[in-house]
Amino acid sequence: MITPNSIIYHIITDRFDNEKGDLASLINDPDYNLKFKDFLGGNFKGISSRIDYLEELGITHVLISPIQECNEYHGYNAEDPFKINLHFGNEDDLKSMITKLRRRGIGTILDYVPTHVSSTSPLFLKKSKSKTGRDWFMFKKIKLNAKYRAYFDELVYKLTSSYPEKLEEINKSQDYIGFFGLEKSPLMNLKNPDVIEFHKKVLDHWVDKFGFSAVRFDSAFIQPREFISELSEHLKDKSRDISLIAENWDFNIDSGRCSGFSSGEIDIKGVHLLNSMTNNPNFFREIRDHYMKMKDLSRKGYSLVLSIGNHDTARFSGGEALQKMNSIIQFTLPETPLIYYGQEIPMQQYNDGSDQMAQSRDVMRFDLLPSNMSSFYKNLVEFRKRHDFKKADISEMKVNDEGKLFSYRLDLNKNVYYVIINNEDREKPINTLHLFEDRNVSNYDITQKRSLKRLEKQVILAKANEGYILSKKP
After folding, report:
1. Number of C-alpha atoms within 13 angstroms, CB side, residue 433?
2. CA 44 → CA 77, 360, 362, distances in Å?
3. Please, which residues have CB within 8 angstroms of residue 399's CB and are 6 or more apart in sequence?
4. Tell me, what DSSP letter sits at residue 186?
């Protein structure tokens, strides 16, 4: 089950590693950018070969990109939802990988795309030629059916960023609605009871046969809430421990829209906020405001998954110092932290960026390890796993007048910690008694396992652009 005590590691299967352990060498290929949109060779055996690394990092779950038959490396345009993508290996390879991960205490999350399939999918080709089968997909004439008219209008509204009158300009197909207008990605009719039953059978196939422990629903923002709820209940009937995490990704960024329908969702608002740190003068205040809005969802057991970037955004480019401060915030809020592969190195962007949606999908740079940042992440993960974050309580959140100093108290049952983030470009003496109503704040920083310089009894010296998790004096 995905909870605030989980730590997720997100992998693009084709970009992580191969069984030889040399996928990173492709960075030096002079044709790397020409090959970037194609399959590069990462596979299930490559993930299996790196289980020691994943276990040492300390994560509890691996989220792997879609593994169904697809002609594109990312997997988000399935040909046959029941078949495995042979570019990544066969069924035995997948079973072996999931089993080996489970033996190390690591669950595997299925990334599932219910919204659409490929326009060359046998399913689409068959249903599009059938009078009754056409209702499986969002053909434009479906709006003449009173059962689906409102759903059709809602889809058009969301896919056109609230400008439905621009549908013909955005949508490339004359006959049907495509995912974000793409002709190659016809949308399925998720209000059709037959389609709902179809998705249940697909999930049964992957969860029952291979042992996935949770499911991520891609692009949940265009899925009916009752569809998500019915599929979530279907999974819960198998096991109460199976979570369904929804991805809400649109241009009206918000969180909590699937509360009551799914186990949790990707905190897209939080993702965008963490990525704005380099150029947002109100960053700390907006983080505080966001926490205040989201905290009740976490307390109700709804899992918000928080990451610094993902497979659809550029990698964080603010440098190691800012990323460390960002990571401290990510790992001390009562949300579920997700590490996007390579973030712990930290990886930069090595491709030319011509494929904008995919610019964060370089091959994993195992050749850059070990690193100072990877040790930093291990300390954060170790700290996180020592405590029950389902019972986390944050108080005394403060931002100074300049918006450069951020602090808060973190209570974890009987353990108390103090988070201080100094985003100034200079050292700063900090009187902890001015931040916290406690005279027993220690100067020991958990993130790097060191003692900070103490200038006076209650005054520590915070270095420029550094963050700390300080413990309470015994």
Report:
1. 6
2. 19, 20, 17
3. 284, 285, 288, 405, 406
4. B
Please give the Cα distance from 412 to 394 (Å, whole number). Answer: 9
**130-159 mean pLDDT:** 95
* pLDDT single digits (tens) 373-386: 999 999 999 999 99
d(CA 74, CA 311): 10
Instruction: Check if the beta carbon of residue 272 is closer than 8 Å to that of residue 253.
Output: yes
Residue 384 has a pLDDT of 98
pLDDT at 451: 97
Strands 415-422 and 405-412: antiparallel
pLDDT band per the 50, 70, 90 thresholds, residue 299: confident
DSSP for 216-261? Answer: EETTGGGS-HHHHHHHHHHHHHH-TT-EEEE---SSS--S-TTBTT
Confidence at residue 473, expressed as pLDDT on a 0 to 100 scale: 87
Cβ–Cβ under 8 Å, residues 176 and 187: yes
Half-sphere exposure at residue 304, Cβ-oriented, CA atoms within 13 angstroms: 26
Q: How many CB atoms lie within 10 A of CB 445?
A: 21
CA atoms within 13 A on the CB side of 273: 22
Q: Is pLDDT above 60 for 252?
A: no
* Domains defined for the chain, CATH in brackets: 8-115+192-281+302-326+337-382 (3.20.20.80), 122-181 (no CATH), 391-472 (2.60.40.1180)
- Predicted TM-score of the model (pTM): 0.97
Phi, psi of 85 (to 5 degrees): -80, 110
The single-letter DSSP state of residue 455 is: E
Please name which of 355, 278, 282, 351 lies closest in space to residue 309, comparing C-alpha atoms: 278
Pair 392, 334: CB distance under 8 Å: yes
The tokens describing 317, both together, are: 């480019």
- What is the average pLDDT score of the chain? 96
pLDDT digits (tens, 9 = 90+) for 13-34: 999 999 999 999 999 999 999 9
DSSP 3-state of 139 = strand
- Asked if pLDDT for residue 337 goes beyond 60, the answer is yes
For residues 255 and 248, is the Cβ–Cβ distance under 8 A? yes
Asked if residues 459 and 430 have their Cβ atoms less than 8 Å apart, the reply is yes
d(CA 454, CA 451): 9
- Length of the chain, please? 474
Question: In sequence order, which ranges of 351-439 are alpha helices (DSSP H)?
Answer: 372-385, 432-435
Would the pLDDT of 232 be above 80?
A: yes
Query: H-helix or E-strand containing 56?
Result: helix 51-57
With a cut of 70, say whether residue 253 has pLDDT above it: no
